[in-house]
Amino acid sequence: MSFDNILGNDNIKELLNNSIKSNNILHSYMFIGTDGIGKSLFAKEFSKMILCLYDNKPCNNCSSCIKFNSDNHPDFMIIDSEDNKNIKIGQIRFLQEQIAEKPIVSSRKVYIINNSDLMTVEAQNCLLKTLEEPPEYATIILILSNENKLLNTIKSRCTKINFQNISNSELTEFANKNNISITNTILNICNGSINKLISLKNDSETYSALDNILNNFSKKDIADIWNDSEIMYKSKDNIINILDYFNIYFFSKLKTNNDIKYINSIKIVEQTKKRLSSNANYDMCIDNLLLKIWEEFNEGNNRS
Question: In sequence order, which residues have a C-beta less than 8 Å from that of residue 262 and are 6 or more positions away?
Fold first, then answer.
C-alpha cells in the first residue's frame, strides 16, 4: 500500500489508492487543508502512482518511477509562487503550453499547483480554460489552505479532498520516534502540522529560550527580561511563530487560571503583530511587548 510513510489522513490514503486500483483518475483535484499537514507529500505520491507504468503502483522500478524519484520526469511538473506572494498568469500559460504536448514516458501527465490560493484572478481565469477542456491524459492537482481565495468557477470543476490536521497522538508518536522533545505548548503551536513539528526540532534552542522568558516574567526585573530575550531580537523572520507561541502559552495558563493578566497579555501580543505588520520599528516593538507583559505580571494588573 502506498502513502505508508506519510502521517495521518488514512481515509484519504484509502480513497486515492482505490482510485488508482480502479483506474478512476480524474482530471482535476483540490487538496485542501492547513499548511504543513502533508498535502504536498500526498500529491507527489499520488502523481507517482498515476504515472507508474506497472500494475503494482508505485513500483519504484519502472522508467517512470526512476525518473520521478530523481526529479527528472518529463510528464510531471510542480508550479509554485516565485515570490511567495502570487502565482502569475505567465506561469499558468507555461503550464498550458506544456500540458498540450502528449506524454513522453507515461500514458498520463500530472501537474501540481502548490499554494494555488496565491493565483491571481487573471491566472485563475487562464487556468479555467484548461479545467473546462483538459487533455484526456492530464491531471491537475491544486494544493491550498484557503479555498475562499479561488473563483467559484475553478472550485466547481475540481474534486475537493479535505485533509484533516494530524492528531496530537500521531504527532507525539512521530516526535518520540524521531527524538524530538515535545510539550503541550509545542503540540498546540503545531496545530496538527508535521512541518511545524519538524521546524520546532530545528529551533529547539529558540523555544527553550522562550520558555525561560515566559516562566520568569514574575520573577525577574524587566532589565533582566530584556537581556534574556536576545533570541527574540535576532528572530525577525520567525517572529510571528514566536508570538503565536507566546499566545498559546498564555491561553494554556488561562484555561487553568482565569487571571486577567493572561487575557491582557494575549491582547498585547496581538497588538504587537499589528504594529509589526505596519512596519513599526522592530526592536521597539519587542521592547514594548516585553515591558507591557512584564507590567501585567508585576504592577498590580494581575487581578483574578
Answer: 250, 251, 253, 254
Give per-residue pLDDT as tens, 42-101. Answer: 999 999 999 999 988 999 999 999 999 999 999 999 999 888 788 999 999 999 999 999
Measure Cα distances from 69 to 51, 117, 137, 140 in Å.
Answer: 12, 27, 21, 19
Question: What is the spatial distance between Cα 148 and Cα 212, in angstroms, rounded to a whole number?
Answer: 39
Per-residue pLDDT tens over the stretch 265-296: 999 999 999 999 898 999 999 999 999 999 99
For residue 38, the 8-state DSSP code is S
Q: Which of 187, 137, 135 is nearest to 165 (CA)?
A: 187
Report, at the CATH architecture level, how domain 10-162 is classified: 3-Layer(aba) Sandwich (3.40)
User: Are 10-162 and 203-298 equal in CATH topology?
Assistant: no
Q: Count Cβ atoms below 10 Å from residue 12 Cβ, excluding itself.
A: 21
Give this prediction's pTM.
Answer: 0.73
Burial class (CB in 10 A: 0-12, 13-18, 19+), 84: exposed
Determine contact, residues 296/263, Cβ cutoff 8 Å.
no
CB atoms within 10 A of CB 222: 15
Q: How far apart are CA 250 and CA 238, in angstroms?
A: 19
Helix (H) or strand (E) holding 28, with range, is: strand 28-32
Using DSSP's 3-state secondary structure scheme, residue 157 falls into coil
Return the CATH architecture of domain 203-298: Up-down Bundle (1.20)
Q: What b/e sequence results for 167-177 when a residue is b if at least 16 CB atoms lie within 10 Å of its CB, and e otherwise?
A: eeeebbebbee
Domain boundaries, the chain: 10-162, 203-298
- With contact defined as beta carbons under 8 Å apart, do 144 and 31 qualify? yes
